[in-house]
Amino acid sequence: MNSIFSEPKFVPLEFQKIETEEQIKRAEKFYENLNRRRTVREFSSEEVPLKIVEKAILTAGTAPSGANMQPWRFVVVQDKEIKRKIRIAAEKEEYESYHGRMSEKWLRRLAILGTDEHKPFLEIAPILIVVFRINSITENGETEPTYYSQESVGIAVGILLAALHNAGLVTLTHTPSPMRFLQEILNRPKNEIPFVLIPSGFPATNAIVPDIKRKPLAEIMEII
């Protein structure tokens, strides 16, 4: 009997076992590198080699995804006029958030970060990476949802941030709400939903960041 499903194809796994001591060294080195990653709001306008960004996005594209549908699109914005349009639209939404949408508890949490509705980094940073979540695809005239797209894109963004940091760049995860204006300004199709806006580049000279601490291992891991 003929099946309506494609037959799966498999290839040998490329895997090289590493000695335990080397594994631990790699884990420690990777942690030490990523532990230096900080969210930065003060950028230099110095240009970033596009090759670095391309490799970081390729790295993000290695993320696992539901049914291997890879439901992500990374739009790299370098054009100054488009960046300005994005800033104007983002600041409009952020003003509404800081002056009515956000609860007092939320604003109290943000106070220690020193943030407000002003987002100059959206113009100063040499590149903006706008990540879109593809929520459906159309093939052979039929439309189908992408499965676990929210989780899949979230994992890809985490890998992207690590890849950019590893390459010597700084980043910011910016999520003005709502973000529909990104879809309009960048002329994206209806099935691409804005997920996060990531300014990236080099830090400004003498850039500063909030004095915050990360939770210790005992607070984020349990062994059962």
What's the topology here?
Blueprint: H1 20-35, H2 50-60, E1 72-77, H3 80-101, H4 104-111, H5 121-124, E2 127-134, E3 136-139, E4 142-145, H6 149-166, E5 170-171, H7 180-185, E6 192-201, H8 217-220
Antiparallel strand pairs: 1-2, 2-6, 3-4, 5-6
Helix pairs in contact: 2-6
CATH topology: NADH Oxidase
Question: Can you count the helices?
Answer: 8
**What is the CATH superfamily label?**
NADH Oxidase
Strand content: 15-25%
Instruction: Tell me the Rg in angstroms.
Output: 20 Å
Shape call = globular
Strand order of the largest sheet: 1-2-6-5
CATH class: Alpha Beta
**Element order: H for helix, E for strand:** HHEHHHEEEHEHEH
Helix content: 25-40%
Count of separate structural domains: 1
Number of strands: 6
CATH architecture: 3-Layer(aba) Sandwich
Structural summary, described in words:
The chain is an alpha+beta fold. α2 packs antiparallel against α6 (149-166). It has eight helices and six strands. It is globular, with a radius of gyration of 20 Å. The strands form two sheets. A four-stranded antiparallel sheet has the order 1-2-6-5. The protein has a two-stranded antiparallel sheet with strand order 3-4. A hairpin with a 2-residue loop joins β3 (136-139) and β4 (142-145). The mean pLDDT is 96. The chain has a single domain (38-205), classed as 3-Layer(aba) Sandwich (NADH Oxidase), CATH 3.40.109.
Name the descriptors.
two-stranded antiparallel sheet; NADH Oxidase; 8 helices
